[in-house]
């Protein structure tokens, strides 16, 4: 994580909550720089627009700002009473000193504008990750925060990893899965912390099976399920997804696949590459789809192209536009998603 000096923040006690559900800023805030004030104005504008939507839909975690102004290349995410900030790596053409100054301007504005104590603003630098680096520990604080998404509770960790345990952009997909899960056998591949599985269980799935290569995330998944009172019929499988699919003989009416762009581990032979390997992955998964079932496939590789052979063999509908909530409308390329069924 990026080390930021306390003097870069506006300090003060948390006050009353404002109309957007966050605390009011201190009554006598420190003076911001011109750039910091511009950034604060944008945060306030976004908060007015997104706050009402988030409250109406019982959403505690959402993206407030996503590099809306190019000179402030940050993602600012709300997690209840906490703020998670990711600084996108500046191009080499940008003077590092200037980039750092802008970062500090933004970080001074965030607590003041959102009324959040500096200790509740977590800052990270996000760079292009290779292999499993994005899943490696950034810290070891081990602190989990309980948050709400609709009618489920989930655990996030804002400090220990680059990602928090909850992919905010997949919120509409999780809610869709909950609506469609009643009475169905649900399969979640590359399940991560199994947040989609929690939604499926809440929606009345007959059973769930979640597969991931990481014991750490499966333990997290178990805690997410337990937090919502689900433990009996929820199967968690530690293993390589491709290998597991080749050996599994189950049938599932609802399948969700959200693979990483690349993945490797000591348990895998070679490296999983979503562009190269998605045809085999989808063929293996479709072989497990029960009659009348639906498979949802999504990934966030921006250059991804679905192979024509997949579209020739199955009924494929791209539903990306239906899987973007207002907080990601400014970044429609955050992921792509498809609904796939047997012809």
Automatic annotation (TrEMBL):
Q: Which Gene3D superfamilies match?
A: RNA methyltransferase domain (HRMD) like, Vaccinia Virus protein VP39
Q: Cite the InterPro entries for this sequence.
A: SAM-dep_methyl-trfase, SAM-dependent_MTases_sf
Domain (S-adenosylmethionine-dependent methyltransferase): residue spans on this chain: 97-299
A Gene Ontology MF term for this entry? methyltransferase activity
Q: Which GO terms describe its biological process?
A: methylation; rRNA processing
Q: Which UniProt keywords apply?
A: Methyltransferase, rRNA processing, S-adenosyl-L-methionine, Transferase
The protein's name:
S-adenosylmethionine-dependent methyltransferase domain-containing protein
This chain's source organism reads Pseudomonas aeruginosa (strain UCBPP-PA14)
């Amino acid at each position: 994580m990026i080390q930021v000096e306390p003097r870069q923040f506006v300090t003060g006690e948390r006050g009353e909550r404002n109309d957007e559900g966050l605390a009011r800023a201190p009554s006598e805030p420190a003076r911001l720089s011109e750039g910091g004030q511009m950034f604060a104005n944008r945060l306030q504008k976004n908060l007015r627009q997104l706050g009402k939507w988030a409250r109406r839909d019982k959403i505690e975690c959402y993206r407030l700002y996503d590099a809306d102004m190019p000179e402030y290349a940050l993602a600012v995410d709300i997690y209840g009473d906490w703020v998670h900030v990711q600084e996108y790596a500046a191009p080499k053409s940008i003077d590092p000193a200037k980039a750092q100054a802008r970062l500090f301007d933004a970080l001074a504005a965030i607590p003041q504008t959102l009324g959040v104590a500096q200790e509740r603003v977590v800052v990270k630098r996000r760079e292009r990750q290779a292999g499993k680096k994005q899943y490696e520990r950034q810290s070891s604080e081990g602190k989990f925060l309980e948050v709400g998404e609709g009618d489920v509770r989930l655990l996030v960790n804002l400090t220990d990893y680059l990602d928090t345990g909850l992919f905010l952009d997949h919120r509409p997909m999780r809610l869709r899965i909950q609506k469609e899960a009643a009475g169905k056998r649900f399969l979640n591949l590359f399940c991560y912390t199994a947040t989609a599985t929690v939604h499926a269980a809440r929606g009345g799935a007959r059973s769930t099976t979640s597969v991931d290569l990481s014991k750490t995330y499966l333990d997290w998944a178990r805690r997410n399920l337990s937090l919502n009172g689900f433990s009996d019929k929820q199967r968690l499988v530690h293993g390589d997804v491709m290998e597991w699919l080749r050996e599994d003989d189950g049938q599932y009416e609802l399948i969700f696949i959200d693979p990483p762009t690349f993945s490797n581990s000591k348990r895998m032979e070679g490296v999983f590459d979503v562009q190269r390997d998605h045809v085999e992955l989808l063929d293996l998964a479709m072989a497990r789809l029960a009659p009348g079932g639906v498979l949802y496939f999504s990934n966030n590789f921006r250059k991804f192209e679905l192979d024509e052979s997949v579209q020739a063999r199955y009924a494929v509908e791209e539903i990306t536009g239906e899987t973007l909530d207002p907080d990601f409308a400014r970044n429609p390329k955050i992921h792509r998603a498809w609904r796939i069924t047997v012809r």
